[in-house]
């Protein structure tokens, strides 16, 4: 079977460290076993808990333990992931807009918008009717 490799977009981020059981234990004990979003107690390991970055790496978050927190997989992680995806998409749009190579000229009715166009304005817009 052939495998397909996807090219990852450069997000100007540091490489991620492995989330080992020892690292999970340190983070879980630091937070006293509470979910970062809802504040309820989470399991340290298992399918119902996820360790996530408070500030995503794609948004210049750090990879150290102080930026990692436990979350319930449902609904806390789902809500945070959706919000992070929106922020990351916005950041990528802004970077693309700031890049002069990818900027497109603004258009008005399909034509490039020009500010120096003069219009002909009639000198007497309303003429009186002769009787």
What would your notes on this structure say?
This protein is 27% helix and 11% strand. The protein has a domain of 83 residues: DNA Binding (I), subunit A (Orthogonal Bundle), CATH 1.10.30. It contains 2 helices and 4 strands, in the order H-E-E-H-E-E. The radius of gyration is 27 Å and the shape is elongated. The strands form 2 sheets. Strands 1-2 form a two-stranded antiparallel sheet. A two-stranded antiparallel ribbon has the order 3-4. With 131 residues, it is α+β, with helices and mostly antiparallel strands.
Write the layout of secondary structure elements.
Elements: H1 21-30, E1 49-53, E2 68-72, H2 73-98, E3 107-108, E4 111-112
Antiparallel strand pairs: 1-2, 3-4
- Rg from Cα: 27 Å
Report the sheet with the most strands, covering strand number, pairing sense and barrel closure.
2 strands, antiparallel
Overall geometry: elongated
Q: Helix count, per DSSP?
A: 2
Q: What structural class is derived from the secondary structure elements?
A: alpha+beta
Gap between N and C termini, in Å?
Answer: 91 Å
**CATH architecture identity of the domain at 21-103:** Orthogonal Bundle
For this structure, the CATH topology of the domain at 21-103 is: DNA Binding (I), subunit A
Helix share bin: 25-40%
Mean pLDDT: 77
Lateral arrangement of strands in the main beta sheet: 1-2
Which consecutive residue ranges, at least 5 long each, have pLDDT under 50?
1-11
Binned strand content: 5-15%
Order of helices and strands: HEEHEE
Q: Write down the CATH class of the domain at 21-103.
A: Mainly Alpha
Number of strands: 4
């Amino acid at each position: 079977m052939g495998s397909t490799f996807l090219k990852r977009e450069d997000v100007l981020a540091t490489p991620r460290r492995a989330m080992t059981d020892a690292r999970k234990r340190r983070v879980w004990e630091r937070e006293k076993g509470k979910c970062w979003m809802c504040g309820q107690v989470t399991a340290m390991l298992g399918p119902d808990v996820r360790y996530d970055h408070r500030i995503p790496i794609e948004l210049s978050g750090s990879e150290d333990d102080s930026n990692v927190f436990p979350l319930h997989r449902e609904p806390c992680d789902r809500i945070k992931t959706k919000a992070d995806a929106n922020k990351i998409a916005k950041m990528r749009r802004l970077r693309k807009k700031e890049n002069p190579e990818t900027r497109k000229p603004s258009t008005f009715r399909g034509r490039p918008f020009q500010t120096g166009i003069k219009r002909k304005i009639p000198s007497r817009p309303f003429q009186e009717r002769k009787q």
